Amino acid sequence: MEKINKHKKPSSYIYKLFIYVALLALAISIIIPVAWVFMASLKKNSEFIGGDVSPWALPKEFFVQNFVVAFRDANMGTFFLNSVIVTATALILLLLLALPASYALSRFNFRGKKILNIAFMAGLFVNISYIVVPIFLMLSDANKLLGVDFFLNNRFILALVYASSALPFTVYLLSGYFRTLPKGFEEAAYIDGCGYFKTMTKIMVPMAKPSIITVILFNFLSFWNEYIIAYTLMDGNDTLAMGLKNLMAVEKTATNYGIMYAGLVIVMLPTLILYIMVQKRLTEGMTLGGLKG
């Protein structure tokens, strides 16, 4: 046995070394571009132009005027507020719809359950970008039919479309997690006089918090960075992704690179902060369900 262990050790060390090197290379490939964008957003325009200028040089001073110009002249503050409103509304609508649906599908048996499961699973294969034009035509026809201008250029409608597009994946993820939770908690709640709704809100939803945080993070990234649907349905109440596109087009022509990178930082910063805040819960949500079966 000792000889076998001795023969296994070198290969085990090589395998671990390979994993560490691969992870280090992956981390470097992510950290360096992000750090470079942050560094470039604090440079003056003169530090980008010239034959003797190194793109890797640190800023001579922290030129925060780039962010001031991006917020003031490029209207990024308004775009940022629009994105916050749309993303927050979409997440609230999504959780209000997905939590009861996933709980019912995972914990109860009722007529039509298989059909609903098939419908939600089929929704996983529908790419919202492919049906954005039919959605636009449907909303446009609704405006004409009712004689209103409500269904287009409306942040609530955009949030509702976002929530609807993310519903199949969210129900799939949450229902899978709910199935792993022991039934003893529900039975104890029923004995104490709790109804179905109170049991769900007071017992089961708090237990599924890691999975809910995972859903929130994934969908936040999707909603925050979405461009195609917002570009199609909105005209005036632009989101941050649309504002960044306009900013990049204008400043690239004017060769104001510092302002371009400042716009990128404004878009990236909320996602980085959110990920740092919930990374521990995110890992729990992705692994805990598999450990409980």
TrEMBL record:
Record keywords, A-Z: Cell membrane, Membrane, Transmembrane, Transmembrane helix, Transport
GO cellular component, one term: plasma membrane
Bilayer topology annotation: Multi-pass membrane protein
Localization in the cell: Cell membrane
Alphabetical GO biological process terms: transmembrane transport
ABC transmembrane type-1 domain ranges (all copies): 80-278
Main subcellular localisation: membrane
CDD domains referenced in this protein's UniProt entry, alphabetically: TM_PBP2
Transmembrane segments: 12-38, 79-103, 115-136, 156-174, 212-234, 254-278
Family: Belongs to the binding-protein-dependent transport system permease family.
Protein name according to UniProt: ABC transporter permease protein YurM
UniProt organism field: Faecalimonas umbilicata
Lineage start: Bacteria, Bacillati, Bacillota, Clostridia, Lachnospirales
Originating gene: yurM
